[in-house]
Amino acid sequence: MLCLGLDVGSTTVKGAVLDLERGEVRSILKEPFPAPLTGLPAGHCEIPPAEIVSVVQGMISRLLREAPAARALFCSGQMGGMVLVDSSGRALTTYLSWRDQRTLQSPTAEGTSLDAIKAIWRGNELIEVGQELQAGSVSSLLYWLAENKQLPANAMPATVADYVLGQLCGTQPQMDPTQAIGLLDLRVGTWHRPAFDALGLADVRWPQLADPRTPMGTCTIDGHVLRCYPSFGDQQCALRGVGLTRDELSLNVSTGSQVSRRTGKFEPGPYQTRRYFGGDFLNTITHLPAGRSLNVLFDLLTELSRAEGITLNRPWETISQSAARNDAGGLQANLAFFSGPLGSQGSIDGITTENLSVGNLFHAAFRNMADNYSLCAARLCPELTVSGIAVSGGLTRSVPILKQLIQDRFPIPLRESVESEETLLGLLEIAREIERQ
Length: 437
What we know:
Layout: E1 2-8, E2 12-19, E3 24-32, E4 46-47, H1 49-66, E5 72-77, E6 83-85, E7 95-96, H2 113-120, H3 125-128, H4 138-147, E8 156-158, H5 160-169, E9 174-175, E10 184-185, E11 190-191, H6 193-198, E12 208-209, E13 217-221, E14 224-228, E15 232-233, H7 234-242, E16 248-253, E17 257-263, E18 272-275, E19 281-285, H8 291-301, H9 303-307, H10 315-325, E20 332-334, E21 347-349, H11 358-380, E22 388-392, H12 395-398, H13 400-408, E23 414-416, H14 422-435
Parallel strand pairs: 1-5, 5-14, 5-15, 9-12, 16-22, 22-23
Antiparallel strand pairs: 1-2, 2-3, 4-7, 6-8, 10-11, 13-14, 16-17, 17-19, 18-19, 20-21
Helix pairs in contact: 1-5, 7-14, 10-11, 11-13
């Protein structure tokens, strides 16, 4: 049996044919996610929703030429961010991305929108929604729109992937619990209406919480009818593709980075908590410095070659090999160049005339990443009562010294994912479970 899989990411939209009988992901396609609008106020990140629908529709059409017998569509997508829709599912706003930073601005002496929300949620509200309050989260964006008199009446928030699915099916979007980060009262699994009423959001309409086994509708593309299931959180899909068990920690080491632990019950702590599959929960620390921060160093070191039109043949391979031959020479790097749980200002310390080299600099950077993973693992699992660590994301495969530095910090074995498309593989596992019922 054949199905289609889509991952609506913030950089790339990926699609593939899911072969349920053979357990294979094949015919993988990639298209750039549409670029944000220009000319917006500082910190705003918005994308025209019609352009996203067009990209997805074109990709489905191409996939159907590869697999005309496909009869179902499974999708994952970005968590955070939203499109506000009316009662018919029509967009009332652009897609306000999870990358949007407007809620970090300080229009008054009282601080930012995030500061205001924390001041209002003086009870246990933040704990009960899983400690999920980010600049581009649905809760913070809704609050900002309401405070700035820009919240449409009776609007309903939808994830970007669910908005697209609603447009394809001609129905209202739904939301799977894995997508509803920071919105559910995790004690009971329903929308935390009291928390949002306190923010002045009582008039917001919340979507139906999806049953993952039930299609939200059907779409017809090029004469082919597809059952469409509501989208799942991309992080959870990737970890399902990795095969994460309750007896493992997960380290995702990629452009962004997370440390996660799967549990059978809601256990609040110094981390975020999200819903996982099968009634489980995912304790996680996200937005850790990784590939995005490494690129800051890379861009600095290659600025002159780019300016002079010189193409380096194997820059990352050279960096990896040089880092493996060095020991940082006393250099210390802090990769917190972007705001996250480990700070918002990075640094390079201990520079001398003898130690400032590419190999030492990147060895120090990789060491900092390994130290961060050790620190976050201790927050999630202080006694390290797990038997192994599942590593995914691909960066450790291309930088072996990073994998070794991580292993040096843990007395338990690492299990590295051999798949490069963990999210699509997770969709394959979901499709096999649902379609065979």
